[in-house]
Write a sequence for this structure.
């Protein structure tokens, strides 16, 4: 296989990419992969100081701009879409990764815990995509389709022991929503797929590796016996955003070391 054919299949060079929740965890891993592969990457997150720190790290590897944004409501989604529109005439790849979780006993689970998670994890991916459709349309063609990747979780496929009721509800709903979006946006040459990560180190999973003994015990339940890596997360996202993945839409792809299939 020649380098030119490899680039034809897997290149994301010069694509314009937005990763929400891109300052840490899986979002940062995905953003790093796109930056290293030559894309023009925007990352968004709520805290300005965290945005600045992530931008400084990723800008050493390539082209990255951080935009502080709170997309937990429609106004915030519109504001971020306006920020991107001010800088770019198109958007090749939108990665809806921003999310939050909440665990609490079932008899004490609150409305606040429900609404906070469902609004960011379930509602925001839809409305941010809606607000960015003009830019996605500008990037989309039959030969080079625009891409939306919604980041769900293996908890949306099967339950965990974490009592994260609103999170499991939102992530499972996001997967079905994505199928509907894929159907409706297909004629506009926009692919919509879902990545469902399993064991990756992030703020959400920090309690599972904060203590070495706890981590060792948790690791016994991982099918491959390790945490997911930057290459695992970014590699799948890049594949779905490249020519190699252009014939795929409406799919949920577990990125979990086989845990949902054989774990």
């Amino acid at each position: 296989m020649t380098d030119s054919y490899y680039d034809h299949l897997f290149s994301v060079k010069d694509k314009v990419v937005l990763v929400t929740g891109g300052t840490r965890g899986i979002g940062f891993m995905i953003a790093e992969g796109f930056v290293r592969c030559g894309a023009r990457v925007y990352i968004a997150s709520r805290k300005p100081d965290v945005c600045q720190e992530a931008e400084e790290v990723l800008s050493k590897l390539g082209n990255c701009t951080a935009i502080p944004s709170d997309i937990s409501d429609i106004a915030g989604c519109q504001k971020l879409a306006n920020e991107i529109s001010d800088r770019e005439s198109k958007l090749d790849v939108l990665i809806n990764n921003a999310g939050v979780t909440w665990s609490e006993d079932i008899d004490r689970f609150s409305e606040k815990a429900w609404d906070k998670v469902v609004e960011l994890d379930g509602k925001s991916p839809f409305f941010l995509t809606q607000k960015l459709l003009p830019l996605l349309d500008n990037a989309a063609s039959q030969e080079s389709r625009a891409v939306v990747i919604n980041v769900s979780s293996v908890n949306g496929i099967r339950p965990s022991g974490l009592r994260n009721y609103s999170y499991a509800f939102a992530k499972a709903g996001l997967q079905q929503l994505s199928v509907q979006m894929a159907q409706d946006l297909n004629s506009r040459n926009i692919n919509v797929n879902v990545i469902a990560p399993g064991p990756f180190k992030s703020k959400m999973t920090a309690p599972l590796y904060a203590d070495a003994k706890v981590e060792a015990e948790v690791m016994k339940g991982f099918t491959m016996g390790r945490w997911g890596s930057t290459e695992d997360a970014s590699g799948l996202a890049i594949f779905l955003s490249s020519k190699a993945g252009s014939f795929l839409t409406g799919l949920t792809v577990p990125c979990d070391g086989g845990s949902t299939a054989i774990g």
The first helix runs from residue 3 to 10. Residues 90 and 134 are 8 Å apart (CA to CA). The beta strands are 16-20, 40-45, 63-68, 93-96, 146-151, 190-197, 252-255.
